[in-house]
Amino acid sequence: MLNSARIISVNTAPPYNVYVGSGLLSGVGSRLAQMLTCRHAAVITDSNVAPLYLGKVVDGLKDAGFAVSSHIFPAGEANKNFETLSGILEFLAQQHLTRSDCIIALGGGVVGDMAGFAAGCYQRGVRCIQIPTTLLSAVDSSVGGKTAINLKAGKNLAGVFLQPTAVFCDTDCLQTLDAATFADGAAEAIKTGILCDEGLFSLFERGDLTGRISEIIARCVAYKAGVVERDEKEMGERKLLNLGHTVGHAIEACSSYTIPHGHAVAAGLAIVARSAETLGWTAEPIAGRIADCLAQNALPVTTDFSAQALAAAAAGDKKRSGSEITIAVPRKIGACELKKIPVSDILPFIQAGLEV
């Protein structure tokens, strides 16, 4: 099935391919056998994904001649921490994984972050293959090499950049997602539409998703690939990908990570759009259109947390630099820009966006 997959090249150093299509899981082992000389693969996954897909991936790897070991950790954002990371690293050491072997991240964004971070620091770096199983990880987190864990002070505050060796996105995996988890990924795809692609955004306005999910994923990945190629370490343009995330991460933190990432980002997108429009930063009225699109896709457009609580959480965001914080804001659908504001202005900025 890999021969019929859409292929998006990410031209970082080293470059890699993202494969998007149906029925890819069973062929991952044979493709990796062609790409790699190593024959030991450690599959990292979580308790939700393991019963669904671990057996198929392990069988394919073994059939291709790999020795395979697997590690399962408890699912959920609350487990994206040092304790889970330590467990993965100890497992890799117990399995005698070497620098010439590889780690496979099988799962959603949390798995991709945990396995990618572990790959980046175990023996100072081993290869990592990403196999996203959620829409959110497929359109966003599996590509670009950003890996991180949460600290008590905030989300994704400890991590490393490690570009994957390859990404295999089997769209069949999306069929097992419940509606809320699918919507979680739709938030990141809608974000991409706001950033660069009016046509992609309009697909979500129309609800025109059935039969076009491979196209949606490929368009999101292609845009992100271009941004990552130009700004791999997030010194400038890549910060645009954080659209909605400053407020979204604050919502996650205030909820003790009980609100899923995509739902928090969706609320963040709507809040930032309203703030930008109120402050006169938009080229045209767009806040209502963004909120309507999010709501049509079963996503929230506001939050019950106070502006004071959100501002306090946002002040610790990793995008802060000294007394300023960089916020991505929409100009119109398909075009956004970066704004540096004083940390002291976060509160009134968020307050403006909460006024529905």
Task: Explain how this protein is built.
Helices cover 44% and strands 21% of the residues. The protein has 356 residues and is an alpha/beta fold. The strands form 3 sheets. It has a 7-stranded mixed β-sheet with strand order 1-2-9-6-5-3-4, with helices on both faces. The chain has a 3-stranded antiparallel β-sheet with strand order 10-11-12. Strand 10 (320-321) and strand 11 (324-332) form a beta hairpin. Helix 6 runs parallel beside helix 10 (261-278) and helix 9 packs across helix 10 (261-278). It is globular and about 60 Å long.
Would you spell out the secondary-structure blueprint of this structure?
Elements (H helix, E strand, L loop, with lengths): L5 E5 L5 E6 L6 H8 L4 E7 L3 H14 L3 E7 L8 H13 L7 E6 L1 H13 L5 E6 L2 H7 L4 E6 L2 E8 L4 E5 L8 H18 L1 H9 L6 H18 L14 H10 L6 H18 L8 H10 L10 H8 L5 E2 L2 E9 L2 E8 L3 H9 L2
Parallel strand pairs: 2-9, 3-4, 3-5, 5-6, 6-9
Antiparallel strand pairs: 1-2, 7-8, 10-11, 11-12
Quick structural gist:
This protein has helices at residues 28-35, 50-63, 82-94, 109-121, 135-141, 179-196, 198-206, 213-230, 245-254, 261-278, 287-296, 307-314, 346-354; strands at residues 6-10, 16-21, 40-46, 67-73, 102-107, 127-132, 146-151, 154-161, 166-170, 320-321, 324-332, 335-342. By secondary structure, it is of the alpha/beta class.
Q: Could you spell the SSE succession in H and E letters?
A: EEHEHEHEHEHEEEHHHHHHHEEEH
* Main beta sheet strand tally, sense and closure: 7 strands, mixed
Radius of gyration using CA atoms only: 20 Å
Structural class: alpha/beta
What proportion of the residues is helical, as a percent range?
40-55%
Trace the largest sheet across and list its strands. 1-2-9-6-5-3-4
| Average of pLDDT | 95
Uncertain spans, ≥5 residues at pLDDT below 50? none
Overall spatial form:
globular
- Helix count equals 13
What is the percentage of strand-forming residues? Answer: 15-25%
- First and last CA, distance: 47 Å
The counted number of beta strands is 12
